[in-house]
Amino acid sequence: MRITYRSAEAADAAQLLEYLKAVGGETDNLTFGAAGIPFTPEQEAALLERLAKSPHSRFFLALDGEKIVGNACVNGSDNPRFRHRRSLAVTVLRAYWGRGIGSRLMEQMIAFSREGGAELLSLEVRADNERAKALYRKYGFSSYGTFPKYFKLDGRCYDVDCMTLDLTAQAQPDRS
Ligand SMILES: CC(C)(COP(=O)(O)OP(=O)(O)OC[C@H]1O[C@@H](n2cnc3c(N)ncnc32)[C@H](O)[C@@H]1OP(=O)(O)O)[C@@H](O)C(=O)NCCC(=O)NCCS
Question: Residues 119, 86: contact at Cβ < 8 Å?
C-alpha cells in the first residue's frame, strides 16, 4: 500500500464529505458523527477552494489510490491578534490506523504552519483518546489544561485536553 499526500481541492468536495461521514461513524472522538458535517458539496468546494489559496489555513488529504483515507486541517485567522496561531485537526480511517498516516499528516500541518510563520499550534482532544494524545505528544504538544464537559454524547459529557505546541520554543518537533 502506497499512501500519497496532497492539499485538498474543490474537486475533492463530494468524496471528502462522504469520507467525513465514514470517519465520523467510526469513532466518538470527533465533533461530528455518522451524519458528517452539514455542508453541501458546493459549500464544501467553495471552502476547499478558499483554503487552497490561504497562507494560513489548509486541508490535507491522505489517499490510497484515489480513495481518501485520512485528512488534516490547519486553521488560521486573519485577525492580527490571532494571526500567530493555528488550530489543527486530524483523522484517519480506522482500517488504516497504525501505519504512520496520522504522523505524516501531523508533519505536513506543522511544516505548513512553520512556513506560514505560525508561532503557536493548538488542538483539543478527548481526554480519554490516548492514541491521539500519544500522536500529539510525539510531535512536542503538551497539555495546558482540561476543558470539562466539552462534548455531550448520548447523554454523557466528556472532557477534552487542550494542547499546544510553541513553534518558537524548539527548532524542530520532538520525535523521540
Ligand atoms: C488519532 C489518529 C489520527 C492516529 O492516526 P494513525 O494513522 O493511526 O497514527 P500513526 O500510525 O501515525 O501513529 C501515531 C502514534 O499514535 C500512537 N499509537 C499508535 N497506536 C497506539 C495505540 N494502540 N495506543 C496508544 N497510542 C498509539 C503512537 O504514539 C504512534 O506513533 P509511533 O508509531 O511513532 O509510536 C487516528 O487513530 C484517528 O483518526 N482516530 C480517530 C479520530 C481521532 O481521534 N482524531 C483525533 C481527534 S483530536
Answer: no
